[in-house]
Design goal:
- The complex is a heterodimer.
- Chain A is mainly α.
- Chain A has six helices and no strands.
- Chain B has three helices and no strands.
- In chain B, α1 (7-27) packs antiparallel against α2 and α2 (31-56) runs antiparallel to α3.
- The longest helix of chain B is centred in the C-terminal third of the chain and has 31 residues, at 62-92.
- Chain B is mainly alpha-helical.
- The chains are: A mainly alpha, B mainly alpha.
Chain lengths: 167, 105
């Protein structure tokens, strides 16, 4: 087993551990911190896949913006004052069964499918190539996404500052 | 066999992330925790895109462009969802989904 594989297994274990803790722990603040661990793992996997630009994007946007926004919302809404109800074991078993079925089905599907293969190393992985596709071939989706972001910001401002019927 | 060079290992991680995300979405009743599970699902999708981009596509920028779109849409979704969560908390003093069972006030 090469050194690269050892590092890969460590990173995969870190990602899956972070994901597990992010859904399992009862304190929502701990969930958010575990989500950050998991996102760091995914960013490292992106580096393994030659997508350095996406790794940087993942750290900046997911960890720097989304996770921090989630932590802000947790601190503003203070959910741990209300969370003391014990877990319902029937619901736990039901959701574990459903997700295990989904996971097993996906694994079976992956084992049975023949994936088309291209040369994993050849091709343009660089930021220059990404920027060129974004501004030529995919210019319309790019502009649409920026419009969606603008509307989301305006919508969030409208919702969070509405004083109508505030009790 | 080289683990970090095979498509299957990335698919395994991504399927596990999807399974954990669905598990959290079904099990938790806290809106912020459900949002965190949703982030896990979106991450599994983008991991799939990047892995397929490396191993199966000739144009190596296609999958990365789509992942950029996923990240932007996730940011928009979190922005709206968190503002709704805060609004709901001000209304009901609770962010449990079972308390949020009516659309009007």
């Amino acid at each position: 087993m090469s050194l690269q594989d050892v590092v890969f297994i460590c990173i995969a274990a870190m990602t899956l551990l972070g994901a597990f803790l992010a859904v399992w722990l009862k304190n929502v603040f701990h969930n958010a911190l575990s989500l950050i661990l998991c996102l760091f793992g995914v960013a490292a996997l992106f580096i393994f896949l030659n997508a350095e630009f996406l790794a940087v994007i993942e750290v900046i946007i997911y960890i720097g913006a989304i996770s921090i926004a989630i932590i802000f919302a947790i601190m503003l809404s203070r959910p741990w004052f209300h969370q003391s109800a014990p877990r319902d074991p029937i619901k736990l078993v039901r959701s574990a069964l459903a997700s295990a079925l989904l996971f097993g089905g996906l694994l079976q599907l992956l084992r049975l499918t023949q994936w088309p293969v291209a040369d994993p190393a050849a091709g343009d992985f660089s930021m220059r190539g990404i920027g060129r596709s974004l501004l030529t071939t995919y210019a319309l989706p790019f502009e649409t996404v920026s419009l969606v972001l603008l509307i989301a910001i305006i919508g969030a401002l409208v919702v969070s500052t509405s004083k109508e019927n505030s009790s | 066999m080289n683990l970090s060079d095979s498509l299957q290992s990335y698919f395994f991680i991504s399927a596990a992330l999807l399974g954990l995300g669905v598990f959290g979405l079904l099990m938790r009743r806290n809106l912020v925790a459900m949002l965190i599970s949703l982030e896990l699902i979106l991450n599994s999708a983008s991991l799939n895109f990047v892995a397929l981009n490396r191993f199966c596509l000739a144009d190596k920028s296609l999958g990365q462009v789509f992942t950029v779109f996923i990240v932007a849409l996730a940011a928009a979704e979190v922005c709206i969802a968190l503002s709704l969560v805060l609004w709901l908390y001000r209304k009901k003093e609770s962010i449990n989904v079972e308390d949020a069972n009516e659309l009007k006030n």
